[in-house]
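fyi for ur records
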Amino acid sequence: MILVDSYPESNYSGISSLIYHDSFLMVGQSFTGNGGVLNSVKFYLDKYGSPTGNIYARIYNHSGTFGTSSIPTGDPIAGSDAVDVSTLGTNKGLVNFNFSGANKIPLRKGVYYIVEVFFDGGDQDNEVAVAIDNTSSTHDGNYSRYHTTAEWSYSATSDTIFYVYSDALSPFPSHKRI
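which gave:
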């Protein structure tokens, strides 16, 4: 596996974005593709209460200004295999999300994407906590999240703790503009 992009857990500021089905559904980060084929993603997560359901990582096309106002656009272009949220610990840990089959998409070199973690269950007492850095963020991309009111929001001064991995260089050529 090849590391595509990351913002390591050593940057965790002690703050988490809480996600659950009735409020914020997704939290994530913009990143840059490396020309490889998507393999897996890791987020630094834990749980509050006793949430049930599944969590997924999803890749979206990018909209906005990278590093300032990056947000997803359209539907997800790839989704990970499900991770049972009950397997999360109550202390932060890296959680791996594998991509398989048609979800092993090429991440075009130099193209911006958004990686989000999505939770399909929970409530305000049973949540998933996604680690972020909101004090001294230094990743080139930026944090984003989605609210049930169908609104994306972003922060140019926060970053999500994440890792994106590829298998190898993609056999697909980059798109040429005419």
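The mean pLDDT is 88. thats all i got for now
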